[in-house]
Design goal:
271 residues, alpha+beta, 5-stranded antiparallel beta sheet, disordered N terminus
């Protein structure tokens, strides 16, 4: 049996496409009814914790990637917990956790999601059948204080992943700004009906980093970089499925990002 483990890192930072960071899926219906003035799965506000980390578990990493993807120059994992707490009137708010692996497709960097537990069965079904996300049901929570945040994934009553972030007194470093720039606008690619598919979320170009957006629109997008702790229990995950046990057995060796964000830009998947 593989035992649980904890890691503690000082982030050297992160970045992301303002759009593709939030490529985390719900349903995909765009039909308007008399009770609706906007499509279902319109995201009004959401927040969460995101971490990026390097790993040396190359064999498991390669095993988890579909064969259509190549290995990246250096393995990198992205994990998060997000709370979609303010949706359109017809869509139930829900929470979500996920693990992504960096890969290459046609020689270019891309993210591929290997698991995405959610708290809404409607979001689970829509995410699978319309967007190609590997969604399952899970118990996902996000706790917030002024400068500390904790996100947790539980499966079958057992803690599988816990991310904690302490942002108090942390100023963004030049190295962190470089990481935001480096990871900007990397697309997320799923497998849908046997083909590579790119879900598109929002309408921006991805030319700005999340940090730049937070600095330009502080009333709409907040970003706090901090120090993260990550706990994963592959044995607990393996109680749900062997594949999940392998996903959560990928050990971090270096944290390259940790931040909390809060988004108030109204967003949705392009249809």
């Amino acid at each position: 049996m593989i035992s649980g483990y904890r890691t503690f890192f000082r982030p050297c930072t992160v970045l992301f496409s303002v759009l593709l960071l939030f490529v985390v899926a719900g349903g995909c219906s765009s039909t308007l009814t008399q009770e609706q003035s906007e499509p279902r799965y319109t995201y009004h506000e959401f927040d969460g914790i995101v971490v990026f980390y390097k790993t040396r578990d190359v064999a498991i990493y390669r095993e988890l990637l579909p064969t259509v993807f190549e290995m990246p120059d250096e393995p990198l994992v992205r994990a998060f917990v997000i709370d979609y707490y303010k949706m359109d009137k017809a869509t139930e708010p829900y929470r979500e956790a996920a693990v992504y692996l960096l890969a290459k497709y046609d020689g270019k960097p891309s993210w591929h999601c290997v698991t995405m537990p959610v708290t809404s069965d409607d979001a689970r079904i829509g995410g699978i059948y319309y967007l190609g996300y590997p969604k399952i049901m899970g118990d996902v929570t996000l706790q917030r204080s002024r400068s500390a945040y904790t996100g947790q994934l539980n499966l079958q009553g057992k803690a599988v992943m816990t991310i904690t972030l302490e942002a108090k007194g942390h100023m963004v470093t030049s190295e962190e700004r470089q990481w935001f720039e480096k990871l900007k606008a990397i697309p997320s690619l799923n497998i849908l009906n046997g083909k590579v598919y790119e879900p598109r979320f929002g309408s921006g170009s991805g030319e700005r980093t999340l940090l730049e957006i937070a600095e330009t629109y502080p009333d709409k997008f907040q970003l706090k970089v901090g120090t993260a702790r990550l706990f994963m229990d592959p044995a607990a995950a393996g109680g749900h499925s062997e594949r999940l046990g392998r996903i959560f057995s990928i050990k971090p060796t270096e944290m390259v990002l940790a931040y909390y964000f809060k988004n108030k830009f109204v967003s949705g998947f392009q249809r």
